[in-house]
Amino acid sequence: MTPIPNPIEEPKKFDARCRKAGAAWLVKNPACIRPLDKWTLFRQELADGFSNRCAFGAMYIPSGTVDHFVSWKEDNSLAYEWANFRYVEGWVNSSKNKKPSSLLLDPFQVEEGWFEILLPSMQLVATDQIPAELKALAESTLENLPIRDDERMLRVRREWYRMYEEGELTLEGLRKKAPLIAAAVQKKQALNVV
């Protein structure tokens, strides 16, 4: 997880085409099991706000999904609210299903240096830079989402690292696509100098 500019500018037509249209739909369908998707129209603007990186995995994803940080089941009034959306890898979003937001650190809260990738394991860990009052929530996020050491996530991290190591990607390119791996490389380089 890496810092994300917050707030991300709301698209111009979002209010009419998602928020208001969704609220009107909810009034007509109060007993619905799942809200009607009005948010996918704005997925690309959300992706742009997240630099096309997964909010939880902190790596480039070509086609993520719109995640409701506070789920529909927790608070249906947030189903069509821009501020509740996060850009997330589809399988990570699916794994988040049925987990209350109270178990997860909101990606919008994350600051620089709170998480790091360990080399060579590629495991994502929380650092001591996380404020004490958020440390348990950060650990809960790592436990409740498959972002710490799930093989699907590790495989992608290893590939970004391989591309860098074999010269297919510069450090600056790695920083844009997988900033935590770039930080791990820089940390390793600094230790090698000492």
Keywords:
single chain, 194 residues, mainly alpha, two-stranded antiparallel ribbon, two-stranded antiparallel sheet, 7 helices, 4 strands, 41% helix, elongated, HNH endonuclease
Question: Helix share of residues?
Answer: 40-55%
How does the overall form come out from the CA principal axes?
A: elongated
Radius of gyration: 18 Å
Mean pLDDT: 96
Gap between N and C termini? 28 Å
Uncertain runs: none
Tally of strands: 4
The biggest beta sheet reads:
2 strands, antiparallel
Number of helices, counting only DSSP H or I runs of 4 residues or more: 7
Work out the count of structural domains: 1
- Helix and strand content put the structural class at mainly alpha
What's the SSE pattern?
HHEEHEEHHHH
DSSP strand (E) fraction? 5-15%
Q: Major sheet: order of its strands?
A: 1-2
